[in-house]
Amino acid sequence: MLKENVSLEGKTVLVTGAAGFIGANLVRRLLSEVKDIRVVGIDSITDYYDVNIKYERLREIEALAAGGTRPDGGQTSAAARWRFVRGSIAEREILERVFGEERPAVVVNLAAQAGVRYSITNPDSYIESNIIGFYNILEACRHHAVEHLVYASSSSVYGSNAKVPYSTEDKVDNPVSLYAATKKSNELMAHAYSKLYDIPSTGLRFFTVYGPAGRPDMAYFGFTDKLRAGETIRIFNYGNCRRDFTYIDDIVEGVVRVMRHAPERKTGEDGLPVPPYKVYNIGNSNPENLLDFVTILQEELVAAGVLPEDYDFEAHKELVPMQPGDVPVTFADTAPLEEDFGFRPDTSLREGLRRFARWYASYYGTQTAVPKD
Fold first, then answer.
1. Which residues of 305-331 are buried (b: 16+ CB within 10 A; e: fewer)?
2. CATH superfamily assigned to domain 12-210+247-285+329-346
3. How confident is the model at residue 370 (pLDDT cuts 50, 70, 90)?
4. N or C, which end of the chain has less CB nearby within 10 Å?
C-alpha cells in the first residue's frame, strides 16, 4: 500500500464543481474530518438539472463550515474554513484570481458538463466545460505550483470495450459519445502537463455514482420522479444492461485517499523522467442488471413511503431498444485502487437505494408511511 505523501491538514484545497453531487459531498467530508483545512469551491451552478438541489448542498456546506472549532476549543469562522466562488472554470480570469489569492496546495477538478445523452444534443457545453475548462485548470496548476491535481474522468472512456472487467490498462480509443471523448481528452491533457511541467496528477474513472441528493438526470432519480407522477419508465436495451453502481460515500472515500498520495517523480530505465501521473477506477466491481436494479428501487420506494404498497409497477414499465451513446455493461477492475490505497467500494445496491429513497421521502415530503427497516 502506498504511503501518504500529501498532508491536507492546514492546507487550502480547491474543489471545482463544489455544488455538484460528488463535489458537495467531498467538501463536507473534508470540512468534517480534516484539521485546519480551508476549502475553496467553484461552481457555475448551471440549470442542467434542478438548481434548488445545488443550493441546498451549498447551504449544508455553509452550516458545516460555520460550526468549526479551533485547536484551543474556540469557534473558527466560516469564512476561514470555506469560500465559494460562483463562476465557470472556462473563464480563465476567474481561475487566475482564485489561484493567485488562495494558493491551493491540492486541486480536485470535479466541474464538468455531465451526461452521455445530453452530449448528443448539446455538444457546445461539453467543449466549453470539459475541454477549455480543464485546459484552464492545467494552466493554473502549471503557473501556481500545486502538490497534487486530482480530476474526474469517467467509466464512459471504455466505450464499447468488450473485455470486462474494465482495467485502466485497457486501450480506450473507441468512445461512443462526445462526453466520453472529452473525458479521455482530459486524461491525455493531464499526462502531457505532468510530463512537460512536472505536475503530479491522478485521474479517477467513476462508475455510475448514486445516492441521496444526487443528480436528477440519473436513472434511479428520474425513475423515482416518473413513478411518483404515475408516468411510464423506459428501460433501455430491453433491460439487458448491467451497470456498476457506486454509492456516493464510497466515491468520496476513494477521492480522499487518493488526494493524500500524489504520483511520485521517478526516472525510467532509459534515464528519462517518468511523468507523475496515474489513473484509477472507482466502482463497486459488481455490475447489476437493470431489471434487478428497478425491482430493488421499487421495493425501497415502497418501504420508504414514497409510493403506496399497491403501486402497479408492471403497468408503468416499458422495455425499449438501446439509446445512442449507451453501452450494455460497465464493470470496474478496482484491484490497483485496493493495492495502492487499501480500499474497495462495497456499499450494496439495496443499502444505497434505501438511503436514497429515505432522503427522497424527506426532501420532497412524499412519505406516505413509516419507513420499514
1. bbbeeebebeebbeeeeeeebbbebbb
2. NAD(P)-binding Rossmann-like Domain (3.40.50.720)
3. very low
4. C
Q: Left (φ > 0), alpha (ψ -120 to 50) or beta: where does 17 sit?
A: left
Return the domain boundaries, the chain: 12-210+247-285+329-346
* Sequence letter at residue 281: N
Cell representation of residue 270: 532509459
Q: Can you read off the three cell numbers belonging to residue 280?
A: 484509477
Q: Residue 159: what residue type?
A: G
58 Cβ partners below 8 Å, 6+ apart?
18, 19, 24, 84
Q: Residues 304-328: pLDDT tens digits?
A: 999 999 999 999 999 998 877 677 7
Residues 283 and 254: their CA atoms lie apart, in Å, by 10
Report the C-alpha gap between 109 and 129 in whole angstroms: 11
Q: What is the dihedral of CA 244, 192, 86, 105, to 10 degrees?
A: 100
Residues sharing a CB contact under 8 Å with residue 271, sequence separation 6 or more, in sequence order: none
